[in-house]
Design a protein that fits this description.
By secondary structure, the chain is mainly α. The protein has a domain of 77 residues. It has six helices and two strands, in the order H-E-H-H-H-H-H-E. The longest helix has 32 residues. The chain is elongated, with a radius of gyration of 20 Å. The mean pLDDT is 89.
């Protein structure tokens, strides 16, 4: 008799992921577009809004031109370094939010798999279907 009888695919994936038998891969571009909608935390939504404002091309060009006109060239380097750090932080946070929401909610999990945002593969044999 199978020990997985009566369990859903989501339950099996969650238990095997926690044991380290599965890897959940994430499509980065789709993940960055959808993590604010997946999160129920208003601070994450505010963080996403701040990232959108700071990474808007007009904002970047405007800040660099303004700092260059005032002769604060070292500040341009700090601004660009902060911008890179902010984008790296956004990628890390969005990855964590996407995987955690997929593991917590079965409907979110199936929706993310259908839309191709996440893919579940076996740790030892990535070509074998889960």
């Amino acid at each position: 008799m199978s020990i997985t009888q009566g369990k859903t695919l989501h339950d099996i994936v969650v238990t095997r992921y926690r044991k380290g038998e599965l890897v959940i891969g994430v499509n980065k571009s789709s993940m960055l577009n959808n993590y604010a909608q997946l999160s129920e935390n208003p601070l994450v939504k505010l963080f996403h809004c701040i990232v959108c404002l700071y990474t808007f091309p007009g904002t970047i060009i405007g800040v660099i031109v303004l700092l260059a006109c005032h002769g604060k060239f070292l500040s341009i380097g700090f601004y660009l370094g902060g911008l890179v750090a902010l984008m790296a932080l956004e990628q890390h946070i969005s990855h964590k939010i996407t995987i955690n929401r997929a593991l917590k909610n079965q409907d979110v999990f199936s929706d993310l798999v259908k839309r191709g945002i996440i893919r579940v593969t076996d740790m030892l044999d990535p070509d074998r279907p889960v």
